[in-house]
Design goal:
The chain contains 13 helices and 20 strands. It has 402 residues and is α+β, with helices and mostly antiparallel strands. Bound molecules: flavin-adenine dinucleotide.
Length: 402
């Protein structure tokens, strides 16, 4: 976006125009963009109220007022739709290309840079940035020095380094005296919206299995102890899975099921419960609950049963009702809403401190011809299209002002 916008401006700049050179260390451009949203690309978030939208960027909200006034969500819609890529809005206001293909988003941007006359050099890894007297004077690529009037950094963060984002920009920026904040590790609890989980705050479910689904498809299976909290799920098993779950959250709706009795298949669990019921015929279901389910979960889980009262005597529970109990214990439903962390739903942050960047131009306050964009900026945000919107916004602003 930054290169395309700089190229577009260069074309109309008289008399001589301006040349833009895009250096990419991979053999192809846009490796990460092509895998966004599980290949569907959650291109932005269609929240119309800018105050509400910007609140999702936490502490960065004041910084983002100016860049979003130059290129906001409506501009993103206009940019892609006017170039032949209609967008559709799905759950949680997440916007996707109608084709649901990240590759189509890439193609629009590729065309944009070609139309802007941008020269693209792939397999061109920038090794170093040279500075002098408050300016960048050159970059080193394959041992050769390249000079320019302005320099825009768009080297991304550190997640999924196989796509080329290996954090090079963070090292350069700190080498030249900028403050670079360490990313929050993604070893964090998971936020869940289910009442039963919250009711069990403080209870550990021992030796259970949790299965995570992306848009209904099974993706991750883990076994161990899970701690329920008043905001969601925690404990070492969950904390260590947060990075993988963050990737799923980028791609769509994430749900989970907890199997409270993974050692038994449905038949074996049904048999176990039948034996408990036979031995306690005149007792109420709630009184024998601790013998058939994780201890202490009665108050939270019994209300999930449809048409089966906690006070029902177990001898009057029908086979169908017993099967409902079995099914519940084999698949306790959880809806994951995000990661708990910096702003309670963060999936990415870390990068250049915002007080060292001019909000109107994305220009470094230390180097007068250096501009910084996208994942290089220290801005926390949840999943839902907010990251790419940040790229479109900051890329456009840097390209407009460099
Ligand atoms: C699996 C996954 C799915 C995602 N899905 C979504 C989504 O659906 N919606 C959303 O809003 N966000 C999503 N994100 C986040 C989003 O992809 C990033 O915020 C965005 O790609 C950042 O863009 P960027 O231009 O800052 O950097 P990047 O996209 O990381 O691009 C950086 C580029 O710089 C190149 N580079 C790095 N170092 C050098 C060097 N030394 N010399 C030359 N070139 C170099 C890299 O090869 C790379 O091509 C997802 C992230 C991941 C990991």
């Amino acid at each position: 976006m930054a290169a395309g916008r700089a190229g577009e401006r260069g074309k109309t700049r008289l008399p001589a125009g301006r040349q833009v050179l895009l250096l990419e260390k991979n053999a192809v451009l846009g490796a990460k963009l092509k895998i966004t949203g599980g290949g569907r690309c959650n291109i932005t978030n269609a929240e119309e109220d800018e105050q509400v939208l910007l609140a999702h960027y936490g502490d960065a909200k004041p910084f983002l007022h100016s860049p979003f006034s130059q290129f906001g969500v409506a501009d993103t819609f206009n940019f892609f739709e006017s170039r032949g890529l209609p967008l559709v809005v799905q759950a949680r206001k997440r916007a996707f290309p109608k084709t649901e293909k990240a590759l189509d988003v890439f193609k629009i941007l590729e065309k944009y840079i070609l139309m802007g006359g941008v020269e693209v050099r792939t397999k061109a890894s920038v090794e170093k940035i040279n500075v002098s007297d408050g300016k960048v004077i050159s970059v080193i690529v394959d041992g050769k020095e390249l000079t320019a009037e302005s320099y825009i950094l768009a080297t991304g963060g550190k997640s999924h380094p196989e796509t080329g984002s290996t954090g090079d920009g963070f090292s350069w920026l700190s080498d030249i005296g900028h403050t670079v904040k360490e990313p929050t590790p993604t070893i964090v609890p998971l936020a869940a919206e289910d009442e039963w989980v919250k009711k069990l705050a403080g209870v550990t479910l021992h030796d259970v299995r949790i299965i995570f689904f992306l848009d209904g498809k099974r993706k991750i299976v883990l076994k161990g102890d899970i701690l329920c909290t008043h905001f969601g799920l925690s404990g070492p098993l969950i904390l260590n899975s947060a990075g993988d779950v963050a990737d799923l959250l980028h791609a769509g709706e994430v749900t989970a099921q907890i199997d409270a009795s993974p050692q038994d298949d449905i038949g074996a669990l049904d048999k176990k419960i039948t034996t408990v019921f036979d031995n306690n015929k005149n007792k109420a279901l709630k009184s024998v609950w601790n013998e058939i389910a994780p201890v202490g979960t009665g108050n939270a889980l019994l209300p999930l049963l449809n048409g089966i009262e906690p006070d029902i005597k177990v001898h009057s529970i029908t086979k169908v009702e017993r099967r409902q109990i079995v099914d519940l214990l084999k698949a306790l439903p959880v809806t994951i809403t995000g990661l708990m962390g910096y702003d309670r739903a963060v999936v990415a942050d870390g990068g250049l401190a915002l007080d060292e960047v001019d909000t109107r131009t994305m220009r470094s306050k230390k180097y007068s011809n250096l501009y910084v964009t996208g994942d290089l900026l220290h801005i926390s945000r949840p999943s839902g299209g907010y990251s790419l919107q940040l790229c479109w916004t900051t890329g456009y602003v840097a390209g407009s002002n460099s």
